[in-house]
Amino acid sequence: MIYLTRKAEFSASHYYHNPDFTPEENQRVFGKCSNLNGHGHNYTLEVTVKGEVNAKTGFVVDLKDLKETMNREVVDAMDHRHLNKEVPEFKKLIPTTENLAIAVWNRLQPRLQMAKLHRVRIYESPDLFADFYGEE
User: Fold this and answer.
1) CATH code of domain 2-132
2) Annotated catalytic, 39?
3) What is the C-alpha to C-alpha distance for residues 24 and 104, in angstroms, rounded to an integer?
4) DSSP letter string over 72-131?
5) Catalytic annotation on 86?
6) Catalytic residue among 39, 46, 80, 89
7) DSSP bridge pairs for 48
8) Which of 11, 51, 54, 126 is close enough to 115 for a disulfide, judged by CB 3.0 to 4.6 Å?
9) Which of 33, 46, 89, 98 is catalytic?
10) List 24, 52, 124, 136, catalytic entry
């Protein structure tokens, strides 16, 4: 089994807000991140796929195809966007780093043909990241 990881970067804004909370609860739980004007992050996305090497091509996956899929499904859809307002998954879901990793998984997993998605890792800053491995 071979594991390959491809990186991409994008920037997006968001805020944390639970409509079931009072304004005071949102402030207490989410602090500055609850400001409805939002704030932005530079994200680094790592997508790891796994599979067996194809004897004819030498590939587990064509990295050009993986890059195009990542760009189409994630980077083009989320770069310089307000996640809460412009990305369908976050109309009702709080766009935490954890939920972002799950949303990326859900966008990519059905579109991979040759290799199997193994891990999605989102870095929100150099010292914070979320991993999502899906169901194994």
Assistant:
1) 3.30.479.10
2) no
3) 31
4) IIIIHHHTTEEHHHHSGGGSSS---HHHHHHHHHHHHGGG--SSEEEEEEEEEETTEEEE
5) no
6) 80
7) 5, 119
8) 51
9) 33
10) 124
